[in-house]
């Protein structure tokens, strides 16, 4: 964490200097509707930019207190690190370390443990898969907003009534809200862009004329958070339980050491039946759970929360309003507003936040003049493709989990599927296809462990200036900047006329006056031991002078960690003889890999994107 750049300032360094702004007006750059995980991810990202006028409105009277979602994938934890609160989540959350599989025993009457495996494979991420109440995740995002330069805070008690696109050249979207805390009054806002993060019954989506399309399985499930006493031995492990004839349960231990969540298979719905028609009670869920878990006892002392739902998978045809006539998108939807699925794979909140993280940096780049508006077309293209993959995965996961196994071999199918798709449920398998933002694989061999289009997989390094060990990807913050990681060739020490120095000299031509890394953050990683590298002989671009005093940034130069099994060049398959340039998008995905010093290739890639800063 860096601070004091523009002078010493006492107090909490996480609280940014407040950038004074006029009181909220009826004209905005970005209007966010909904304070769910997607809306708050987007708001937290945009709050970092005082020049972008942003508001987030929510129909509820205040912050969420008890949330339905709880699973936080490894990839989401990586994203939380970019926002600065991954450590807080790790401290408070339950860590999903192992998974137990239970299925009918030989007598088909009692359940027995079939296997117990790692939840995620070794080395998949530096972060664990965690469980934490959605409301706490909201709290952390609200803290980021509260501490940002803009001091952004949600406006509660605002219910969207109508949304229309007008001919206004500057603020072409008009939104009308009922003020629920002042009955009979309304607020009308005009915005350059509107993002609907308002859930499965999205008013924004309805205003766009879009619909969720798909089907339901007609299978009813119950879910409850409980405090209970039981002799079931794996109650503090994530468990998938399949009984012979009573149904299935997914057990998710909760944070705090005592509470557990149970997803409980109930009845099949018939005809036009809906979940509400069954008039389920918490007692009915408890009774079914006790039947599935027999012969183990389950004495429920308190039900903290419960609900019932029907499994379904639905997705919109588009995630923006540019479907007709090729117009520039002005209205977007994210999260449950554009895709819904079952909670079994724990992807709902995670994918919703990933939607917003993808869109946020793109909106910021366009509004800050760093990219053409065409960049916004890539949001729906990239995220809808991922949503369709999720729908297919969720359908198979739900089907296998609800299957009535007739034999041990059939019962083992779910376990095999879970193991095979562990990387997907961890959120690290997302891969964007080649596009204007993602290069092809021409130079993939230079860094085989950093697949183009996938998230930048972190690895340990040593910071040269102060010998601090850290994870390289933790230098990627949610600040809208691109990163270029330059991995040095075998003999390069950063000395004058070497490959790294030549690269930095060429890249320096792109540096804006007074803001050396405001758009492209260049960092060097060397193979030589950190103690043998001479910081005073490094290229100026890796020691930029910044801020009002021209202070030197010493945190851009790294060496491979010499400890066994921790060398980033080995872990990520980086060519030791030739080195490599790895260009990473603001949302932490690898955009391109190029030979070290290939300025022509670097320029060609940037010129093919909507990025204005990439043009000579």
Describe this protein's structure.
The protein is 23% helix and 26% strand. By secondary structure, it is of the alpha+beta class. Strands 6-5-12-13-14-11-15-17 form an eight-stranded mixed β-sheet, with helices on both faces. A seven-stranded mixed β-sheet has the order 19-18-24-21-20-25-26, with helices on one face. Strands 1, 2, 8, 9, 10 and 16 form a six-stranded mixed β-sheet that branches. 46% of the residues are buried.
List keywords for this structure.
8-stranded mixed beta sheet; 13 helices; alpha+beta; 616 residues; 7-stranded mixed beta sheet
Helices and strands in order:
Layout: E1 27-33, H1 37-46, E2 54-57, E3 71-72, H2 74-83, H3 86-92, E4 94-96, E5 98-104, E6 111-118, E7 129-131, H4 134-146, E8 158-165, E9 173-179, E10 186-196, H5 203-208, E11 213-230, E12 238-242, E13 248-253, E14 260-268, H6 282-293, E15 298-315, E16 331-333, E17 339-340, H7 348-367, H8 377-402, H9 408-420, H10 422-425, E18 460-463, E19 468-471, E20 482-487, H11 499-507, E21 520-526, E22 545-546, E23 551-552, E24 557-560, H12 568-571, E25 580-584, E26 590-594, H13 599-607
Helix pairs in contact: 1-4, 1-7
């Amino acid at each position: 964490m860096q601070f004091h750049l523009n002078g010493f300032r006492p107090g909490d360094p996480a609280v940014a200097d407040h950038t004074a702004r006029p009181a909220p007006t009826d004209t905005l750059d970005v209007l966010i509707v909904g304070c769910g995980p997607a809306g708050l991810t987007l708001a937290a990202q945009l709050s970092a930019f005082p020049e972008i006028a942003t508001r987030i409105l929510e129909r509820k009277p205040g912050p969420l207190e008890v949330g339905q979602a709880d699973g936080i994938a490894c990839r989401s934890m990586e994203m939380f690190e970019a926002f600065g609160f991954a450590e807080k989540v790790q401290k408070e959350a339950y860590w999903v370390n192992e998974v137990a599989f239970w299925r009918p025993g030989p007598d088909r009457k009692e359940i027995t443990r079939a296997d117990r495996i790692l939840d995620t494979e070794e080395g998949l991420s530096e972060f664990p898969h965690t469980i934490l109440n959605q409301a706490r995740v909201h709290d952390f995002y609200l803290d980021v907003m509260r501490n940002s330069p803009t001091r952004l805070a949600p406006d509660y008690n605002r219910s969207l009534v109508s949304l229309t696109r007008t001919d206004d050249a500057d603020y072409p979207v008009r939104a009308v809200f009922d003020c629920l805390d002042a009955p009979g009054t309304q607020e009308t806002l005009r915005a350059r862009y509107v993002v609907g993060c308002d859930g499965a019954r999205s008013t924004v989506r309805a205003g766009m004329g879009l619909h969720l399309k798909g089907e339901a399985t007609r299978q009813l499930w119950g879910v409850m958070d409980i405090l209970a006493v039981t002799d079931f031995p794996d109650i503090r492990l994530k468990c998938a339980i399949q009984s012979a004839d009573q149904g299935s349960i997914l057990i998710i231990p909760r944070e705090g050491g005592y509470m557990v969540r149970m997803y409980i298979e109930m009845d099949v719905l018939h005809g036009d039946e809906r979940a509400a028609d069954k008039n389920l009670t918490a007692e009915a869920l408890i009774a079914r759970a006790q039947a599935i878990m027999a012969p183990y006892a389950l004495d429920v002392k308190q039900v903290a929360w419960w609900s019932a739902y029907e499994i379904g998978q639905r997705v919109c045809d588009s995630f923006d309003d540019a479907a007709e006539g090729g117009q520039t998108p002005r209205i977007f939807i994210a999260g449950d507003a554009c895709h819904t699925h079952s909670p079994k794979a724990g992807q709902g909140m995670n994918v919703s936040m990933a939607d917003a993280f993808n869109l946020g940096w793109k909106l910021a780049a366009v509004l800050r003049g760093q990219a053409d508006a065409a960049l916004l077309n890539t949001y729906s293209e990239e995220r809808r493709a991922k949503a369709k993959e999720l729908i297919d995965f969720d359908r198979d996961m739900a089907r296998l989990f609800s299957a009535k196994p007739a034999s041990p071999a059939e019962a083992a199918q779910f376990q095999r599927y879970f193991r095979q798709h562990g990387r997907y449920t961890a959120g690290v398998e997302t891969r964007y296809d080649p596009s204007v933002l993602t290069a092809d694989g021409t130079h993939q061999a230079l860094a085989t462990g950093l697949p183009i289009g996938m998230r930048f997989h972190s690895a340990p390094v040593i910071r040269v200036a102060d010998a601090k060990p850290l994870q390289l990807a933790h230098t990627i913050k949610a600040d809208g900047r691109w990163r270029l990681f330059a991995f040095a060739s075998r003999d390069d020490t950063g000395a004058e006329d070497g490959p790294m120095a030549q690269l930095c000299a060429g890249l320096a031509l792109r540096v804006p006056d007074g803001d050396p890394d405001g758009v492209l953050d260049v960092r060097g990683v060397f193979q030589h031991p950190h103690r043998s590298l001479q910081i005073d002989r490094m290229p100026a671009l890796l020691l930029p002078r910044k801020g009002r005093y021209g202070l030197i940034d010493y945190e851009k130069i790294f060496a491979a960690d010499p400890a066994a099994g921790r060398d980033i060049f080995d872990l990520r398959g980086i060519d030791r003889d030739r080195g490599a340039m790895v260009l990473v998008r603001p949302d932490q995905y690898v955009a391109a890999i190029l030979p070290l010093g290939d300025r022509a290739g670097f320029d060609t890639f940037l010129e093919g994107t909507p990025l204005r800063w990439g043009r000579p």
